[in-house]
Structure formats: structure tokens, C-alpha cells
Amino acid sequence: MDFLHAILFAILQGATELFPVSSLGHAVIVPALLRWNIDQAAEGFLPFLVMLHFGTAIGLLAYFWQDWLAMLRGLLGRGYAVEVTIQRNILARLVVATLPAVVIGLLVKKPVQHLFASPLIACLFLIANAGVLMLGEMMRTRSAKYAETVSYTDAFIIGLFQCLAFLPGISRSGAAIVGALRRGVPHEAAAKFSFLMGTPVIFAASVLEIPKLLKAHELHALFGISLVAAIIAGVVAYASTAFLMRYFRDHDAWALKPFAWYCAIFGAASFAMISVGL
Fold it and tell me: Is the Cβ–Cβ distance between 26 and 12 less than 8 Å?
């Protein structure tokens, strides 16, 4: 992988990881469309993607640092008793929401791993992602829940929805937001809960995969490129998060629909172009 491709991958990752359009699906489809000569089955490619995810997690952490600091203070018992209780409850619910991804990820990683190399399958799942987002808007339950009032059952169900992202082309953030909408959480709060719960998942994946990058044969060149790309992904992720939080706040009535139409059109067009060799 050359430097230009790595930078483009970083920008793509930093944006699509937070937008409900599937970063992994785009990472499979876009190189096929642009005919990049990249071996995605190579030893270092998955760890490279994980480095980009690590950069994305840093961007998320930077944006929500006040929330994480408040949760840390609550965990340590610092502050007023009421605030400590609130922050501990939020943290506990994030843990519950994260557990399904950890357990199901260990079970399905190998069975679905071969799907991640197929652009055509990713296109089909991207179209399916459009259906998930549209159904999420149609079947949402309207109430006024926020991170402070999400129940353990809500958190667990949101975590189960997040697991749809183990299929390449299904958005992690989009699936989690749909799960939150179904439980009565408005778009802005759903997006925030999704981004918060995604941070430890991404960090955990990085911890597991980055050592493989350090053992790759092309260590020196690949690690240097990966580090620069991870920084760029983090900056783009921070900007994407800032934009999306305002967007979801201002368009609560139909926020996911434009992304659904994009996924349907881009997925179908990409499938047709790759199928006929364009």
C-alpha cells in the first residue's frame, strides 16, 4: 500500500465510521471501484485498518472527553452523591451495551471473515443497511430518554443491534442508533450513546490487532504509514462527530433517511459497476 492510498483510507475511515454508512463496507467497495491494487487479504491490511479504528477512537475520546472524565470521577466517587450515581449508571449501561459485541464478536469473527474480502457482498449488505436505517425511522418509539434514563434492557438491546455491524456493509453506529430509536431515545442522544459505546469496542479491537501489525514482515514502512493514517483518521473522526451531533439535534424527525438513500443508491450502483467490470 502506498502513502496516497493510506491517506485516502484514513479519510474514508474517519468519516464513515461515525456516519451511519459502514466504514468497513466502504473500505471493501471503494478500492474495488477505483481499481486500487491493494491485497486486502495481506497480513498487514487488517492491522492497518485497526490502526485507523484506533485513530478514530482517539478522535471520539477527544470530542467526548468531558463525558468520559465525568464518568471517571463518578467511578472514583468524586463529586456530589447525585452526580456520582448518575455517572456510574451511565458507565454501567455502556458496559452492558458493549458486552454483546464482545461475546458475539468472538463467536462469529471466523465464520464471517471471508465476507470482508468480497466487494459484491459488501454492496448487498450496504443496500441492506439502507433498509435497516429506513426501518429504524419508521418503527422508532418516540419518548424523551437520554443516556441518564436508558435502562439496562435498553442498553442491552442497543448492544445487540450494534452486532449487525459484524456483516460488512452494515453500519455499527447506524445499527446502534436504530436500536436506540426503537427504545425511545431521540436521534441526538442515540448518536451520543452509540459513539460512547463504540469507543471501548474500537479500543479493544486495537489492543487485540495492533501487535499483529508489529509482527508484520513490512514492519517499518507499514507502521509508519499506519501511524500517520491513524492521526488523520482521528482528526476526520473528530470533525465528523461534531457535525453529526449538530445534525442529529436539528433533524430529529428524519435524520437517518438521507443516509439510507445514499446507501441504497451507492450500494446498487457499485454492485452494477463491479459486476460488469466498469
Answer: yes
From CA 171, how far away is CA 2, in angstroms rounded? 27
Q: Is the per-residue pLDDT at 220 higher than 60?
A: no
User: Minimal CA–CA distance to 40: which of 125, 113, 124, 127?
Assistant: 113
Compute how many other C-beta atoms are within 10 angstroms of the C-beta atom of residue 111.
9
Is the pLDDT confidence value at 139 over 60?
A: yes
Asked whether 171 and 194 are in contact (CB, 8 A), the reply is no
pTM, 2 dp: 0.89
Q: Which domain holds residue 189?
A: 3-276
Average pLDDT over residues 97-112: 80
User: Using CA atoms, how far apart are residues 176 and 199, in angstroms rounded to an integer?
Assistant: 13
Structural domain total, the chain:
1
Helix (H) or strand (E) holding 13: helix 3-16
- The answer, yes or no, to whether residue 123 has pLDDT greater than 60, is yes
% of the chain beyond a pLDDT of 90: 51
Residue linked to cell 419518548: 143
**What is the maximal distance between C-alpha atoms in the chain?**
64
CA distance 38 to 36: 6
Residue 213 near residue 117, CB atoms below 8 Å: no
| Burial (Cβ within 10 Å: 0-12, 13-18, ≥19) of residue 43 | middle
CA distance 117 to 114: 6
pLDDT tens track for 89-101: 999 999 999 999 8
CA 191, distance to chain mean position in Å, is 11
All three cell numbers of 260: 439510507
Looking from the CA of 118 toward its CB, the CA atoms found within 13 Å total 14
CA angle 228, 233, 236 (to 5 degrees): 130
What's the confidence (pLDDT) of residue 213?
Answer: 61
| CB-CB neighbours of 273 under 10 Å | 15
